[in-house]
Amino acid sequence: MLKSAVRKIPAPSYLIFFAIILLLPLFVTDAFWLNRLSQYLTYGMLAAALSLCWGYCGILSLGHAAFFGLGAYCMAMSLKLLSPTSLGQGTDFPLPDFMVWNTLAGQELTLPLLWVPFQNQWFGLFAALIVPLTLAILLGLFIFYGNISGVFVSIVTLSLVVILNLIIVDQQPLTNGFNGITDLAYFTVGNFEFDPYSWTTYLLTAVSLIAMMLLLKAVVETKTGLLFRAIQADETRVKYFGYNIANYKLFAFSLSALVAGLAGALFTISSQFASPALLEIGFSISIIIWTAVGGRASLLGSAIGAIAINLLQSLLSESETLINVWLLIIGSVFILVILVLPNGLTDIIPTLSARFFPKSYSTMPSSPEGKEVSEAPLVSMRTKD
Question: Taking the model in full, what pTM does it have?
Answer without folding.
Answer: 0.88
